[in-house]
Design a protein that fits this description.
Layout (H helix, E strand, L loop, with lengths): L1 E8 L9 H5 L6 H12 L6 E9 L4 E6 L4 H9 L14 E2 L1 H10 L8 H15 L2 E2 L4 H9 L4 H5 L1
Parallel strand pairs: 4-5
Antiparallel strand pairs: 1-2, 2-3
């Protein structure tokens, strides 16, 4: 088995680099592979998505594995911005705590041991990107989490 790892734009992969040149020597139909990747990543339109193409060079059969987009990409999508502010003290957009929880639930490969710790990771990324949470700084919301003010949202 041969594995090709790539990062593609959701729903918009092409037969150009990085996939085309890697698939060509394996003798698989690149068009079929690209179509399958685009179908599998269409929900992540406009985001960078990690994909794995696993090819059996003998039979020319392939499987596609789609990873989770990076946390920053998910936050930008939910905030409706193209990029964070790049300055943690300047607003780069805003999300709700409910959206932060939604992102945390989608991060199935997170290092967090439970939903609260995963939400803390998401909020930490919001701090770095200058993304506000419910009109407050993400640092403030992190303190509120420590005080148990948002337990109902986390359990819901």
């Amino acid at each position: 088995m041969k594995t090709i790892d790539a990062i593609v734009e959701g729903g918009a992969a092409t037969a150009g680099p990085p996939l085309g040149p890697a698939l060509g020597p394996l003798g698989v139909n690149a068009g079929q592979v690209i179509a399958k990747i685009n179908e599998a990543t269409k929900d992540f339109k406009g985001m960078k998505v990690p994909v794995k193409v696993i090819v059996d060079p003998k039979t020319k059969q392939f499987t596609i594995e789609v990873g989770t987009p990076p946390t920053a990409e998910l936050i930008k999508k939910e905030a409706g911005v193209e990029k964070g502010s790049g300055n943690k003290d300047t607003s780069g957009g805003e999300i709700s705590l409910e959206k932060a929880v939604k992102i945390a639930k989608s991060k199935r490969n997170s290092l967090g041991k439970d939903i609260t710790s995963t939400v803390r990771e998401i909020l930490g990324s919001c701090v770095s990107m200058g993304i506000k949470v419910d009109g407050k700084s993400a640092k403030e919301v992190l303190k509120e989490l420590d005080q148990g003010k948002h337990d109902s949202v986390l359990k819901g």
